[in-house]
Amino acid sequence: MRMLGKGNPSKAETLDVLLSQTQRPTTAWSPLAPAPPTLLLAPPFTKQILREIPLFKGHWNRMAVPEKPVLYSYFRSSCSWRVRIALALKGIDYDILPISLIKDGGQQFTKEFKTLNPMSQVPTLKIDGIILTQSLAIIEYLEETRPTPVRLLPQDPKKRAHVRMISDLIASGIQPLQNLSVLKKVGQETQLAWAQAVINSGFGALEHVLQSTAGKYCVGNEISMADLCLVPQVANAERFKVDLSSYPTINRINKTLLTMEAFQVSHPSRQPDTPPEFQA
Ligand SMILES: N[C@@H](CCC(=O)N[C@@H](CS)C(=O)NCC(=O)O)C(=O)O
Fold first, then answer.
1. Which residue out of 73, 79, 169, 239 has the highest number of ligand 1 atoms within 8 Å of its CB and is therefore the one to mutate?
2. Whose CA is nearest to atom 13 of ligand 1?
3. How far apart are alpha carbons 227 and 66 in whole angstroms?
4. How far away, in angstroms, is 18 Cα from ligand 1 center?
5. Is the pTM of this model over 0.90?
6. Share of residues in the chain with pLDDT > 90 (%)
7. Which fold does the domain 157-278 belong to in CATH?
8. Across residues 60-89, what is the average pLDDT?
């Protein structure tokens, strides 16, 4: 990180340094390292001097150099994948800080991470100066603050309710029952049968719902938050060897969505923390 302040650099050099510091490195690798500040100023570079630079003139009071969002994520976490798809669809540049749910007994349980997410779960997103947990709340925040280029909630109240209904069906009715912490309690021997049972029960209901809401995607022909929940849940189903042939609508929508770039770049097989054996 270049710092301003030593000697007497020219205004052009000042500007050059400031602009070079508006972005941090693309990926931070240390799980719990605090994000460095976007802009470091040291005397004599005060607001006074910046005000004189034409580019900043008249804008200083409104000017805040945005921090790149940081997503605490685990490659195989379906809830993290939901958020990664949303970030990709919205074209938001962000850093990933991997939190391994396995290594060291689970990095989600460290004191440092618990201060960010008291539930000891991923995802967690640092954005716009706040920390957000709960994937659906995160996606709705992104939708409200960055409605373009792709909307994830339809304007029509009935369709919007359908999107939330399907998202909740998956996020409250299926995923939590086959979450890692639950599987640990269920025990090694019965966890596969347990996961298959809860996914089959949820997918039976979901298939039924989709038959009346779906078009090309879960709700009509526009992509939505429901689709961001569907694809990662199907990946979980495949991981637990659920036979998907009884769910033709789920299967069809999943296949369509997986051809989209936003679903591919955010895929568990293409994350900075994906172990070599799971890389695509
Ligand atoms: N409702 C939460 C659920 C988050 C969640 O269950 N995350 C899982 C990974 S998908 C997790 O961190 N599990 C850690 C554990 O079970 O110890 C959300 O949607 O963000």
1. 79
2. 121
3. 29
4. 38
5. no
6. 76
7. Glutathione S-transferase Yfyf (Class Pi); Chain A, domain 2 (1.20.1050)
8. 89
